[in-house]
Design a protein that fits this description.
Blueprint lengths: L1 H21 L57 H4 L4 H4 L50
Length: about 140
């Protein structure tokens, strides 16, 4: 009986704190939450020779070219056409990092680790968009 009362009290407290936190969240669209969002403008993907400067230590490199037509699925990884151990020198592209060949148990593999296979989970293309909100972030130099 005591356990159920404690569990009920904790659930009520969690609900109270959650609802009060949610009520303070503001939309970037303004106060009218019933209006439909506008379709975003088509932005040109930045093509940067030599790569995009990183903003902080350990940041995955950003992709300095378009990847719209690259196929990345369970059977094929289009990024490896240029970035693999065998082709990176010929293609003048950065080689995939050694960390991408280590599994979660620390074993070195001959092929890409399944944890690092889907490149666009971490490495993304960039567009010349203005920030949604003002900020004073200054990246590491």
């Amino acid at each position: 009986m005591k356990k159920s009362v404690i569990v009920l009290a904790m659930a009520l407290m969690a609900g109270f704190y959650t609802s009060s936190a949610v009520s303070e969240v503001m939309s970037l669209r303004g106060d009218d939450l019933t209006s439909m969002a506008q379709k975003p403008k088509k932005m040109k993907i930045l093509s940067v020779s030599g790569g995009i400067e990183r903003s902080f230590e350990q940041q995955p490199p950003m992709v300095p070219h378009t990847v719209d037509k690259y196929e990345v699925n369970l059977k094929h990884n289009g990024c490896m056409k240029c970035h693999s151990e065998q082709t990176y020198e010929k293609e003048k592209a950065p080689k995939v990092g050694d960390s991408h060949y280590i599994d979660r148990d620390g074993n070195v593999l001959k092929t890409l680790s399944s944890r690092r296979y889907f490149c666009n989970q971490c490495h993304t293309t960039q567009v010349g968009a203005e920030p949604l909100v003002q900020n004073n972030f200054v990246g590491a130099k």
